[in-house]
Amino acid sequence: MIKNVFNLEDSKSFIDRINQLTPETKPLWGKMSVGKMLAHCSVSYEYVYDNIYPKPKGFKKFILKLFVKNLVVGEKKYKPNNPTAPDFIIKDDKDFQKEKERLINYIIRTQELGEAHFDNKESHSFGVLNATQWNNMFSKHLDHHLSQFGV
C-alpha cells in the first residue's frame, strides 16, 4: 500500500527511514551513492518548489504524458534499475548531511501544504494532477530509493 505523504505519520515514517541512513550506507542495487540518491529524490520536489528545470514542451511533453505519466503517478511500484530521466541523473558527489536535510525539509513542506494545495495543481512534466497522483509520485519514488538502500 502506498503511504500518504500528506499524512503526518506517513511523512514521519519516511523521515525515520532517511534518518537510518549513514554516509556509508550501500545500495542493494544500482550505482548511486547514498548522497546522490538523496539528491536524486529531491529532484521531484525541486520541480515543484525551485523552478530550476525548463518545462518540457512539444513532442517531449506529449511523450511524457502519453508514456511516462501513468508509470509515475499510478499505483504500481517501480522496478529496480528502471531508466532515469536526465534531470534525475546526479553526476557530482553530494554532501550526505546537506542532501539528507534538504530532502527532509521538502517532505515536511509537502506534508504541511497538504492535499488541498496539490489537488489539481499542474506538475512540471505531466500536466494537472490530482492529490492522489501527486502522492503516488512522491511516495513511490521515496519508497523505491529508500528500499534500494535497505531502509
Q: Portion of residues in helices? A: 55-70%
- Reading off the top of the CATH hierarchy, the class is best stated as Mainly Alpha
Low-confidence stretches: none
What's the number of extended β-strand segments?
2
Largest sheet: 2 strands, antiparallel
Would you kindly provide a written description of the structure presented here, covering whatever features stand out?
The structure is a single chain. This protein has one domain (8-148): Four Helix Bundle (Hemerythrin (Met), subunit A), CATH 1.20.120. The longest helix has 23 residues, at 96-118. The protein is mainly alpha-helical and 151 residues long. Helix 2 runs parallel beside helix 4. It is globular, with a radius of gyration of 15 Å. It has helices at residues 8-19, 34-49, 58-73, 96-118, 131-148, and strands at residues 121-123, 127-129.
Quick recap of the structure?
The chain has helices at residues 8-19, 34-49, 58-73, 96-118, 131-148; strands at 121-123, 127-129.
What secondary-structure arrangement, pairings included, does this model have?
Layout lengths: L7 H12 L14 H16 L8 H16 L22 H23 L2 E3 L3 E3 L1 H18 L3
Antiparallel strand pairs: 1-2
Brief descriptors of the model:
single chain, 151 residues, mainly alpha, Four Helix Bundle (Hemerythrin (Met), subunit A), two-stranded antiparallel ribbon, globular
